[in-house]
Specification:
Layout lengths: L1 E6 L3 H12 L4 E5 L13 E2 L1 H8 L18 E3 L2 E3 L12 E2 L3 H14 L3 E4 L2 E7 L4 E6 L5 E11 L6 H5 L6 E13 L6 E4 L3 E4 L3 E4 L3 E3 L2 E6 L7 E6 L17 H12 L16 E11 L4 E2 L2 E3 L5 E2 L4 H21 L4 H29 L3 H13 L3 H12 L24 E4 L4 E3 L10 E4 L5 H6 L7 E6 L7 E4 L5 E4 L3 H12 L3
Parallel strand pairs: 1-2, 1-10, 2-7, 10-20, 24-25
Antiparallel strand pairs: 3-6, 4-5, 8-9, 9-10, 11-17, 11-18, 12-13, 13-14, 15-16, 16-17, 18-21, 19-20, 22-23, 22-25, 24-26, 26-27
Helix pairs in contact: 1-3, 1-6, 2-6, 6-7
């Protein structure tokens, strides 16, 4: 019997497998595709999830350099956010990486940790009892097999079989008015990148490269790779009959050029990327915004797109779903997790899913054509001139605006929030970043008091909570109890408060 079966080997499933292995649990990951998906999909991670990857030592493996640094600007509803004015309070970090490369890095890490990843297995059905889950799957040779595990996690996308068979509803809305087109193109003399995130287009002039809204739609150009820029358009329902092929019709470069012309009013001769480079031609008809009514049914859980889909930062949210769930499943496998701990996965993460769905609807509304929307954008732009409003929107976009309830009536300021990026000097004289102490995904008691009371209190949990004594000039509290997912479970100096938090989150001893 396996500890956990994971269905779906995209970024969410692979990261969950890594997190479970770090927690000492043996997962089995079943992926329908025989080979890794080489399609060009998401093109980067943004917000709090970037720091989570840094906690696991994956930031640099994904192309980052040194420690994550706040981005000087970002966008909300296509409107620029001058985040540099927030200084140290800026929560937005960026990691430009194609989803294809992210999956490769996570697959390599899962293999290093000894996760059992099996490709070419198509899950057909599941059945759960009081103490286990049975999964029936068909292998690449056509033979069927039954896999048994204590828990099952569906990371199998928006059309999740696991979610459907578990009887979990997936309510939401579909906006059929919008058609999104995306293509990777070759370099062109008529399109030139300008400083400050802008682009010069012959016949049009200089415009923002990101989210250039017109009364006919939205145009976006991303040039992380100048040899194959990414072009995207979004068009709404006011369009000539027959200009939008049905969902089953193949996307062509000519169709992409037609869409760009409708949005911008100028014709650009688009060509494919250089021979041998990855290509992309994709049309999405309609925008889904859906949120599962629950994330757990008995021993079955869902995460990532299986739990929430939107035209927004779902991948950023999905990886944090995995980090939240993994350590709680590991505690249950080891037999010391109360049932409410597994339930807290839904309580905590579904709130984030709701925020992402709301954010997506607001941003889509701000990008739509129309004089009313133009007036609304002008009003929102005025609101964003106030630092406190900019801070709230930045936290929303970064996924850093929800504080978990850690069970205290009057928690200290950092309790319930994602831990800040502290710079430490340990008792043995080492200078390091807090992220370096979180590589192994163990609970961490960061003791900054220099005393012995907290050490005596935490001694009974030394087998599952790592304690480090250090100093930090920018410490938000005398001591922090940090969960494996990076959230502060307790902060302060009171031994009784620490003991209560240890009992609550990591079981009585």
């Amino acid at each position: 019997m396996f500890d956990v079966v994971i269905v779906g080997g995209g970024p969410t499933g692979l990261f969950l497998a890594c997190e479970l292995r770090l927690a000492g649990v043996q997962p089995l990951l079943l992926e329908r595709r025989p080979e890794a998906d080489q399609a060009d999909k998401a093109h980067g991670l943004a917000g709090q999830v970037v720091r989570l990857l840094d906690h696991r030592g994956l930031f640099e493996r994904c192309g980052g350099r040194g420690a994550p640094q706040p981005a000087p600007g970002f966008f909300f509803g296509g409107m620029p956010l001058p985040l540099h004015v927030l200084g140290a309070a800026n929560p937005m970090h960026l990691l430009p990486i194609n989803q294809r490369d992210l999956e490769r890095v996570l697959a390599e890490r899962a293999a290093e940790l000894g996760a059992d990843v099996r490709r070419g297995w198509d899950v057909l059905s599941l059945r759960q009892t009081d103490d286990h889950v049975e999964v029936v799957a068909r292998g690449a040779d056509g033979a069927e097999a039954t896999f048994t595990a204590r828990y099952l996690v569906g990371c199998d996308g928006g059309h999740s079989l696991v979610r459907k068979q578990a009887g979990i509803a997936f309510p939401g809305t579909t906006d059929d008015r919008v058609v999104d087109r995306t293509a990777l193109i070759g370099p062109s003399d008529r399109v030139r990148i300008a400083p400050g995130g802008r682009v010069v287009i012959d016949g049009l002039g200089e415009i923002p490269a990101h989210f250039h809204r017109t009364e006919r739609g939205v145009f976006t150009l991303l040039a992380h790779d100048p040899e194959r820029p990414l072009v995207n358009t979004a068009e709404w329902e006011d369009r000539p009959a027959g200009t939008f092929p049905g969902p089953g019709a193949p996307m062509t470069m000519s169709e992409m050029a037609d869409s760009v012309e409708r949005v911008l009013g100028v014709r650009l001769p688009l060509s494919p990327p250089p021979e041998g480079a990855p290509t992309l031609l994709r049309r999405l008809c309609g925008r889904n915004t859906r949120l599962a009514d629950r994330y757990r049914h008995g021993r079955v859980f869902i995460a990532g797109d299986a739990a929430h889909v939107s035209h927004g930062p779902t991948l950023n949210t999905a990886l944090q779903d995995a980090a939240n769930l993994a350590w709680k499943l590991a505690a249950a496998v080891r037999g010391w997790a109360p049932d409410w701990l597994l339930d807290s996965y839904q309580t905590e993460r579904r709130a984030l899913g709701q925020r992402v769905c709301a954010q997506t609807r607001v941003e889509s509304a701000l990008l739509a054509p129309g004089a009313e929307v133009t007036a609304l954008r002008q009003f929102v732009a005025q609101l964003l001139e106030r630092t406190e409003n900019l801070q709230r929107v930045a936290a929303l976009v970064a996924g850093a605006d929800v504080r978990y309830d850690m069970g205290e009536e009057d928690p200290a300021a950092p309790t319930g929030w994602f831990v800040p990026p502290l710079h430490l000097t340990t008792d043995d004289g080492r200078a390091l970043r807090l992220a370096e102490l979180l590589r192994d995904a163990r609970p961490l008691l960061l003791d900054l008091t220099g005393g012995t009371d907290l050490a005596a209190t935490a001694a009974a949990w030394r087998d599952r909570v790592h304690r480090v004594r250090a100093t930090a000039a920018d410490a938000p509290a005398p001591a922090l109890l940090i969960r494996p997912d990076g959230y502060v479970a307790w902060a302060g100096a009171d031994p009784d408060g620490l003991k209560a938090a240890l009992v609550r989150w990591f079981s009585p001893n």
